[in-house]
């Protein structure tokens, strides 16, 4: 391990990763070159390689981040669009701080052309399902390094999600814009690549369709949702939803009566569903409204809306809503949302498991409940072993 007392001085007032004041690229590069190389050569590898993009993974032992003034760097590697340059990654941490920092450095050997390239760099933490979290994006141009900091609690509090055999997986992608790459290799005068467009065309179309819905102009189908009626247009519903399309395509009661009775959705959910079908947008929604719209999107085969609802819910699962969200995610086959709900239950197990909802959940979903209890036992064992 390497002492970074001079570096730590820059960070002594930082309270969280988002508040970290990062040192200059020049200072960063100077510290980075003094760092020892990671001893495990298999821990650093490229897992994707394209002509203008590389994807890197670095497995770092979680104990490293609990060690005082520790720092390591990876082996050198090449990046396709910059054949004359050598790159390497670094990681360092101070035990008294609440964050750790990773960075990407380039040896100052690159040509002037390569130095002018704008390289988009993205740092993330990978979970057990190879999904990126806490992504930080930087741009490497006319400097020798970029860096990003992560709150240590992201893996200490959620170690079941992030730790693989006691290691934190750092994900880094490097990407060069295709137009910039072409321009950098051409000796001729840059060409104006801008293309005239009709601004706000999509917004105007959405506004017009919204007016069509609100004013009930030329409607030809009625949606009866628990006694409340909504007027709509069969062509728009069929164009947007495969489920509605099949209703109107075959000889069904809905087609002959121009009337659809819906009993398993709330009026508010239908209102937002229609807004999305006509405009591609929704109002600001509460967590419960998001759950209802998530269910509606799955029923009417709207994968983009379902994904958007799921993503929003993953960051808004609260203790009192966790079991309800878990049931919905389980019924509608959304693993990301299911895992987010389970993690919330694990983080707040004492409050959740003494509620009446938990007793009902145990009876109705014993397999999922047993999985949660097993994960909780593993978490408790890991914490106990760590303290030894």
Automatic annotation (TrEMBL):
Pfam families xref list: BTB
PROSITE patterns assigned: BTB (PS50097)
InterPro entries linked: BTB/POZ_dom (IPR000210), SKP1/BTB/POZ_sf (IPR011333)
Domain BTB, first and last residues per copy: 219-286
Family matches, as SMART domains: BTB (SM00225)
PANTHER family per record: SPECKLE-TYPE POZ PROTEIN (PTHR24413)
Name of protein: Speckle-type POZ protein
Provenance organism: Araneus ventricosus
Lineage start: Eukaryota, Metazoa, Ecdysozoa, Arthropoda, Chelicerata
Gene expressing this chain: spop_39
